[in-house]
């Protein structure tokens, strides 16, 4: 049986007999919608943004963008048309359903969708920019009357973002250069964000770190005091390495330098498994956990101690950046390494319970004092 029919039949059975008094969503969209729409009404709990998101996900999930047109019917109502067009836009861009762009009512959004779908940068250059041509997107949670609600906003069509999207899909950095034809990357913060992200994404996709030199361009716009072109180039270059190239270059180093190189890459890609590569050469020759007092002695092997510390800091930095304190339960090579991990995680997450996992009393008390 066709998977779309099975998917829809599931919701028909799920909703059978679930009829009640007319709710707010039924007043907006009608009392007799299809079974998928009824399911979304049930899931949304009278939240219109959640209902919209549910319909979009269903349309993408079953590969049937006609749900967008069925639920968000074509009418003079701007909000309804906005939902309908945005739903079709996402069905094409996220669901890769060919032809959905052509059914978008707003001509500018239709052209934007088509430019992205065809990866045509020249079409991006000719786009019209106005606030009524936008894509509806859900934001974070807001609190209204003590009740959490999903916020929504409409992101206007930007030629620079269109070029970014085309470059991201094609991996062609020359498309990024075209962004300067449509906005000022030296003075506009939004333009500069699109400009930088475009080169970062293409460098990351191609593994070509030389693309990152474009981020060294000067910037005088809002926030220029804290803008760090040199740091942006360095971060972009790191992301441009794929794991094979980056680890190969790390393994050509020795001792502390090799450990720091692997740790830096492990944190950049969010991989705790890479931390285990640090200190592997110490196994069988060094007794774990290593202690500072032992290596402070004359002729003590400081390299073994420092590499063990780098390993432990690698795990700690990942636990904090990934917001995963469970990583602190793993193996640490230096004495008290997990205590620092729990300490940093507790402070980062503002979770006093993590302080209780610290074995050293002084460190535990210090952790708890910081979170009072």
The helix/strand order is HHHHHHHHEEHHHHHHHHHHH
Percent helix range: 40-55%
Principal-axes shape call: globular
Give the DSSP E fraction (strand runs of 2 or more residues): 5-15%
> What's the tally of helices?
19
Strand numbers in spatial order across the main sheet: 1-2
Radius of gyration: 27 Å
Largest sheet, if any? Answer: 2 strands, antiparallel
Unreliable segments (pLDDT under 50, ≥5 consecutive)? 1-20
Mean pLDDT reading:
81
Could you tell me how far the N terminus lies from the C terminus, measured between alpha carbons in angstroms? Answer: 60 Å
* Count of beta strands: 2
Helix/strand-derived category reads mainly alpha
Write up what this structure looks like.
Helix content is 55%, strand content 6%. The protein is built from 19 helices and two strands. Strands 1-2 form a two-stranded antiparallel ribbon. The longest helix has 20 residues, at 302-321.
List keywords for this structure.
single chain; 372 residues; mainly alpha; two-stranded antiparallel sheet; 2 strands; globular; disordered N terminus
Brief digest:
This protein is mainly alpha-helical. It has 19 helices and two strands. Strands 1-2 form a two-stranded antiparallel ribbon.
List the helices and strands and how they pair.
Blueprint: H1 3-15, H2 24-29, H3 35-44, H4 48-61, H5 66-71, H6 78-93, H7 107-118, H8 121-125, E1 134-144, E2 147-156, H9 159-170, H10 173-177, H11 189-206, H12 229-240, H13 243-251, H14 255-269, H15 272-275, H16 292-295, H17 302-321, H18 337-349, H19 361-370
Antiparallel strand pairs: 1-2
Helix pairs in contact: 1-3, 3-4, 4-6, 6-7, 7-9, 9-11, 11-12, 13-14, 14-17, 17-18, 18-19
């Amino acid at each position: 049986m066709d998977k779309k029919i099975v998917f829809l039949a599931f919701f028909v059975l799920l909703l059978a007999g679930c009829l009640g008094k007319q709710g707010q969503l039924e007043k907006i969209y009608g009392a007799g919608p299809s079974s998928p729409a009824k399911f979304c009404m049930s899931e949304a709990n009278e939240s219109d943004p959640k209902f919209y998101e549910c319909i979009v996900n269903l349309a993408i999930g079953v590969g049937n963008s006609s749900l967008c047109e069925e639920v968000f019917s074509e009418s003079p109502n701007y909000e309804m048309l906005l939902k309908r067009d945005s739903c079709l836009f996402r069905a094409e861009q996220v669901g890769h359903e060919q032809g959905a762009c052509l059914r978008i009512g707003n001509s500018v959004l239709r052209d934007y969708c088509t430019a992205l779908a065809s990866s045509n940068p020249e079409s991006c250059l000719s786009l019209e920019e106005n606030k009524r041509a936008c894509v509806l997107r859900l934001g974070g949670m807001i609190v209204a009357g003590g009740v959490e609600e999903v916020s929504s906003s409409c992101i206007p069509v930007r030629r620079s973002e269109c070029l970014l999207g085309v470059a991201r899909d094609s991996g062609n950095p020359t498309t990024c250069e075209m962004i300067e034809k449509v906005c000022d990357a030296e003075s506009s913060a939004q333009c500069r964000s699109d400009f930088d992200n475009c080169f970062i994404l293409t460098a990351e996709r191609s593994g070509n770190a030389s693309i990152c030199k474009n981020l060294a361009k000067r910037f005088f716009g809002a926030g220029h005091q804290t803008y760090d072109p040199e740091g942006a180039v360095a971060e972009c270059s790191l992301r441009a390495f794929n794991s094979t190239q980056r680890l190969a270059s790390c393994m050509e180093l020795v001792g502390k330098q090799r450990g720091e190189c692997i740790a830096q890459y492990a944190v950049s890609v969010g991989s705790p498994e890479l931390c285990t590569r640090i200190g592997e050469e110490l196994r069988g020759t060094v007794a774990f956990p290593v202690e500072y007092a032992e290596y402070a002695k004359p002729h003590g092997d400081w390299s073994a101690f420092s590499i063990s510390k780098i390993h432990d800091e690698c795990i700690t930095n990942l636990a904090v950046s990934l917001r995963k304190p469970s990583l602190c339960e793993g193996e640490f090579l230096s004495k008290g390494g997990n205590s620092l991990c729990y300490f940093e995680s507790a402070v980062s997450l503002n979770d006093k319970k993590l302080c209780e996992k610290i074995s050293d009393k002084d460190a535990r008390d210090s952790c708890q004092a910081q979170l009072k």
